[in-house]
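Narrative progress, year one. The postdoctoral researcher (J.K.) led the effort to move from monomer predictions toward full complexes, under supervision of the PI. The following entry was the first complex the group processed end to end, covering 861 residues in total.
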Amino acid sequence: MSVSGSQRIRVFGLAAAHLRHEWVLTLCLVSALAAVLAPLLILMGLKEGTIETLRDRLVQDPVFREVRPAITRTFDQQWLDQLRDNSGVAFLTPTILPASSVIHLSADNASGELMDLVPTAGGDPLLLENGGVIPGPDECVLSSEAARRLGVKQGDQIDARVTRSRAGRIEAVETPLHIAAVLTPRAGGLARIYTPLDFVVDVEAYKEGRGVATRGWKGESARPYMSFDGILVFSQTPLDPVTRTGLVVNTGLLKAESITADGFAALTGMPWPDGWHAYDLSVPTGSVTSSSVEALKRKLRGRNALLMPYARGMSLQLPDGEMGLTGLSLSNEQASRLGWAAPPWGDLSATALESSRLFQMLLPGDAGESNRELSVGFNGVVGFNLPLRVVGQSHSSQALVPAELLGMLRTARERAVSYQQEDGGLVLERAGYRGFRLYARSIDDVPALVERLRGEGLEVVAEVDAIQRIQVLDRGLTQLFWLIAVLGVFGAGAVLVASLYAAVERERKDLGVLRLIGLARTDVFWFPVFQGALIAILGVGIGWLGYVLLAEVINRVFGGELSPGQAICRLPPSYPWLALLATLVLAVISSLMAAWKATLIEPAEAIREE
Amino acid sequence: MVVAITSTLPVLEMQQVLKTREHAGSRFRLSIPELTVYAGEFVAVVGESGCGKSTLLDLLALISKPSSVQCYRMTFTENEQRDVAGLWSSNDENALAAIRRQHLGYVLQTGGLLPYLNVRDNLLLPVRMNRLPDGRRRVQEMAQRMGVADCLHRLPDSLSGGQRQRVAILRALSHSPRLVLADEPTAAVDKRRARLIVEDFRALARDQGLSIIMVTHDLDLVRSVADSTYGFEVTQVSDNDIQSVCCKELS
């Protein structure tokens, strides 16, 4: 028959009645608590209000969220993708070289203007937050200055002209663009045109002399350059170490060693040329480029030496098995000096070959007899097959292809290379971009992003100072608030402890009587606890009222320059509850000593005290 | 309201209860060889000050732990018998508090009213603590009978001594306890009023079947009305050792 639960309600009623009875003391306590709380709330409100107002000004303008590299560098796609995956990044688009991004715009056959072409993409805050939309294909967005100079408005059509100079001739293409939007002046004072990245990249390609098939713009294709692992040098006279060292100076090569007949056979599968000395010139890590081949040729002029660039670790995947691969380009005269059969494609050329000459091979033994086309794969370099024409028998144990083809395929180890049939051959893919435009998710993400990029050695431009100033101010004010709050808490806590303890002392006899007529020790424990909680609730109520009144005064007197919705002194809506919770916790903790004291009252002693 | 107690078990039964109190080198021992109170009995405990009246009352009010005990039982109904000795030995304070709350009424010498509750709330406190129905009406009736109905809204401080004492008595009775303990309830009132109070107690015991133990120093006041009377035999064993035995006096 436990009715202890209901006794707590009874104790609450008694505690409340006692506070009401001693209302003067209660009022003093409540006022003391409110006098601590109200200034703390005002201080917190001033901090929140000013910081919020300062932040608002930054938050509203995407410029404060922009991060862009301060230098021009190549950023590969993978690096950009990683950066975009960063949680602090809201938007990122690669950009191209500033010099390639100038485009001639004109409206209604007027003379027109040169303007900066800037790539954009879905979610670009600069456009979306400055009255723009994201342009689709064949659309563009103009900055307000660009629209003013061209005398156009949203919905108009302009002509974009891309010009280039190739082989001494000026060439140009034109394309019409629909103006999807004109930005507000806040987006920047420069004359700029924003289009999807595809268009910008195509403009860059055209300016660099390449063609863009999808737009019908004519030009060259990007062929892979040649690269090798090393160059074999054949000389009829032995080369002394000094001469050998001389060969690696200023040629981009590092090592020059003589090569044994076994090593030569393993590398090329070719028979050793009688009466010749062979040397292996290489770069231990890295590539030998065609300019190294040219430099070496010049150094060896007059020695009647012959060159054979090679690449290691590549093999041919034929329909009926794997086969070693050697690149060999020699003229008939060179071949006969070495005692080898001359390859039908001839001498090594410095530039890329015609595809008809390039895609040929010689196969050893019977396989080389028939003139036919084979689709072959290349182990160790590229993932695609090439159609190679078998044009004869190889006198090597390995398949022979033009050294130029070997060099271009080896380049696929460093750069993306693809085979495009309609383009007639191997195409060097885009290496990356020369810059980017990035917007952080919020201004608070900017410092961390800047720090990360600078940590990677990339100097960037961002309005990080303005953001950090506010953060420093915020931290400082928060610390100040907590310092003052700690003082206030100590004071209010001490007042509560003393008052509640004294109340228990005064109430000794009455608490003894309550025990006598049936309250347990655990019941009277709650008497001061409930009193503390009640005082806390009243204190927070009056303190909050004081804060609201004072904040109103402050905002009216000092808030004249603020825009609507901003305030100097303002607290988030959750704060009254936080203040109540914190004060309740403080009050309950402060009442524990009094509560403990109350449980020690012995009714047998207390009821006879006068 | 007459409650018929069919059981012959005593409401209170004490055998060989001993309480020793030591204070500043002096020792006081109260022994109660036997104390039995039946339903409807009015028991007087008479003694001079210092004989152990208060100690006995504290033991009876379950706010003082006996030092040794052979039997200490309370029986409120046939089904509700409480082994007080057992509760004390297991220190079950909540159970003891529940007995005080439900079955005991206590009239303090000085009233013991809560100064911050008005008379009505003071009287309703035990009723509410026991969640009894119809408390307001009962309190109104009882106050009328004791002649304090017109001060129900007043605070205890504004009452006269007699009024305060009557309210104190009423509060001890408001929740219909089975056993009422009264500690010198007549000390603050005149002889005539004192006799009336005693008469009232006597009538309450008889009519409602409650048992009343009244402690007083005034034997004359209770001699004629008490069903049984207990007195104290005080022996000075040594300078610092006083022994008191509480025994039933033959009338």
